């Protein structure tokens, strides 16, 4: 290249770095830079052209940042529109050399999508530019370029309007891929889902841009579906599409948690894919369809599979929407009544469904409205099946205990954090429903585990009350069965699990925590009061009935309760009350109020133990 030409290139580079704050000078310099790049590429000077492209990007970046940071500035929007129009005019020219387009395609998508954030018309031109690059360049190259642009935006551009044209471009690219479609799609999906997850978790305010982004993702799903139709062996790609749709279902529910009407329209679109992928409501809510698709697509240790972290949330939500909306069940080509009847009549499938619902209950990102729908669905499938305890000799109940245990823990989270009393009561009723569906021989183990692994004082108190209720109901049933026989003559306890030393173990767990020392007061007032009430109940019931199923009346146990539980607790309560007696602030008043009922029950327990020790 001539020395004169080098001087021109140097002058161009200097001009790009010159007064970058003047909008009026941007378009001429952009035109000059694009023309020079074209000349250098056509002349074969790839190295110099690459340097100039980088300088061009660096030159435009400050303007794109200003567009996002000052979205109301009409002058900046006009400048962004003019920049995009000039780029579109340049690459769309029929006389443009394909080598020039190929060279620019590595940087242009990222650049133009930054300016897409200026306005709706800017976004439309950005989509045109990306679409033109997709239609003229190598599909495999564009797939990598667009994925890279999606994966690496700066913090300023992690917004829906930046991502939308890029996802739209991938929608077109997928159709153009002719070989190894499954592998290519499996590369794209984690990138798309990563973007959507980031947007969903940060979507504090509902906006049309977020909704539009999910419609773009649905467009990608439609492209994958179109590719599936062309393939002879479509099993793996259909499974991948199914997982993608379920993950979208979950992420859309998170992103649009404050706009349920808009969410329903997304759900209807996504539900149409379910029958096409061979997914059924029953297979979703009991889990097999999801597990099957994951095994088809790859091992859980596969990095590409990590993006499907919310597919079980999505599967549960898809069925919940089928319960709430006839339109959703019709879109999924499902008879919800048949699914409901099957879950009501089949205890195994019902427990599997409860296990799936835990993903909705335990999610901190889903709305309370959706969790309320999930509770309604739970009541729906429990009606007709949970009220009667069914003993199935062929069923291995212990296999399902971990599932039910974690589901109950998830329901506990709703009870603890629900924003109103109505939802707390509904979730507590759900907890009791699920417990009632468990055989009584295993109910003790689950309740004990829930209490042992709980840090919330109020929740421990609720669970101890449930335990006490189970003891009372078993005792009442025993009395009805042995009517006319005194309790002392009944050799076996009402229920070997509840009426056993295990009841006192739970009392000790609260009154003498494993970590040592008496319980923390007033923080654990609820749990302590409930434990004392349980101990008093057992002590009175056993002494009046002249039984000792739990061992509560043995001399050693009475002395242990007296010396290790009750007296240390009395010392603690007395001390805390004394400390707060002279304080007149609200905190001290609340502490004393919380301890008053504990004192009453505590002293009654001490009296009962002292009386029974005299006759032990």
The averaged pLDDT comes out at 86
* Distinct helical segment count: 29
Under the CATH scheme, which architecture of the domain at 26-179 would be assigned? Alpha Horseshoe
CATH top level of the domain at 26-179? Mainly Alpha
Give the helices and strands as they follow along the chain. Answer: HHHHHHHHHHHHHHHHHHHHHHHHHHHHH
Q: Could you say which overall geometry the principal axes of the C-alpha atoms support?
A: elongated
Number of strands: 0
The Rg value, from CA coordinates, equals 34 Å
First-last Cα distance: 110 Å
Oligomeric state? single chain
- CATH topology name of the domain at 26-179, in short, is Serine Threonine Protein Phosphatase 5, Tetratricopeptide repeat
Strand content: under 5%
Summarize the biggest pleated sheet: none
Structural class: mainly alpha
Low-confidence stretches: 1-13, 386-391
Helix % is over 70%
Question: What distinguishing features does this structure have?
Answer:
616 residues, mainly alpha, Serine Threonine Protein Phosphatase 5, Tetratricopeptide repeat, 29 helices, 74% helix, disordered N terminus, transmembrane, YAP-bd/ALF4/Glomulin
């Amino acid at each position: 290249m001539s020395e004169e030409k080098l001087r021109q290139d140097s002058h161009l580079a200097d001009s790009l770095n010159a007064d970058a704050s003047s909008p009026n000078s941007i378009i001429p310099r952009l035109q000059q830079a694009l023309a020079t790049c074209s000349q250098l590429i056509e002349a074969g000077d790839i190295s110099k052209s690459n340097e100039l492209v980088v300088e061009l990007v660096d030159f435009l970046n400050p303007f794109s940042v200003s567009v996002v940071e000052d979205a109301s500035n009409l002058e900046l929007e006009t400048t962004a529109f003019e920049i995009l129009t000039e780029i579109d005019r340049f690459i769309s020219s029929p006389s443009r050399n394909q080598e020039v387009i190929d060279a620019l395609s590595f940087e242009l998508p990222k650049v133009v999508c930054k300016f897409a954030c200026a306005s709706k018309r800017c976004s439309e031109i950005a989509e045109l530019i990306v679409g033109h690059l997709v239609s003229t360049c190598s599909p495999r190259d564009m797939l990598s370029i667009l994925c890279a642009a999606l994966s690496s935006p700066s913090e300023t551009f992690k917004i829906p309007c930046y991502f939308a044209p890029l996802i739209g471009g991938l929608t077109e690219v997928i159709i153009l891929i002719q070989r190894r479609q499954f592998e290519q799609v499996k590369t794209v999906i984690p990138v798309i889902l990563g973007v959507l997850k980031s947007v969903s978790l940060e979507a504090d305010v509902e906006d049309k841009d977020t909704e539009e982004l999910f419609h773009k993702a649905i467009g990608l799903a439609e492209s994958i579906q179109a590719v599936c139709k062309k393939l002879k062996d479509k099993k793996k790609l259909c499974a991948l599409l199914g997982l993608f749709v379920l993950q979208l279902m979950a992420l859309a529910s998170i992103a649009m948690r404050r706009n349920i009407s808009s969410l329903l329209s997304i759900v209807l679109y996504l539900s149409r894919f379910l029958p096409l992928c061979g997914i059924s409501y029953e297979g979703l809510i009991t889990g097999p369809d999801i597990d099957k698709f994951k095994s088809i697509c790859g091992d859980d240790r596969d990095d590409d599979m990590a993006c499907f972290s919310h597919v079980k949330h999505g599967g549960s939500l898809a069925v919940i929407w089928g319960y709430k909306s006839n339109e959703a069940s019709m879109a999924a080509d499902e008879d919800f009544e048949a699914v409901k009847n099957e879950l009501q009549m089949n205890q195994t499938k019902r427990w599997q469904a409860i296990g799936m619902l835990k993903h909705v209950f335990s999610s901190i990102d889903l709305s309370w409205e959706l969790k309320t729908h999930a509770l309604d669905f739970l009541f729906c499938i429990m009606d007709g099946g949970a009220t009667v305890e069914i003993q199935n000799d062929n069923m291995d109940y212990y296999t399902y205990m971990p599932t039910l245990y974690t589901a109950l823990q998830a329901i506990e989270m709703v009870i603890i954090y629900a924003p109103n009393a109505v939802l707390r009561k509904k979730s507590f009723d759900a907890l009791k429903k699920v417990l009632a569906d468990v055989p009584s021989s295993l109910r003790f183990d689950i309740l004990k585990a829930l209490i042992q692994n709980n840090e919330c004082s109020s929740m421990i108190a609720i669970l101890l009350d449930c335990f006490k209720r189970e003891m009372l109901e078993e005792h009442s049933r025993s009395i009805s069965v042995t009517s006319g026989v005194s309790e002392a003559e009944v050799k076996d306890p009402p229920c070997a699990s509840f009426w056993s030393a295990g009841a006192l173990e739970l009392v000790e767990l609260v009154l003498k925590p494993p970590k040592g020392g008496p319980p923390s007061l007033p923080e654990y007032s609820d749990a302590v009061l409930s434990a004392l009430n349980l101990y008093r109940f057992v002590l009175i019931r056993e002494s009046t009935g002249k039984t000792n199923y739990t061992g509560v009346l043995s001399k050693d146990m009475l002395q242990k309760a007296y010396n290790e539980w009750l007296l240390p607790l009395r010392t603690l309560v007395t001390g805390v009350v004394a400390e707060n007696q002279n304080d007149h602030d609200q905190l001290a008043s609340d502490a004393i109020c919380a301890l008053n009922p504990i004192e009453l029950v505590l002293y009654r327990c001490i009296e009962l133990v002292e009386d029974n020790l005299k006759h032990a």
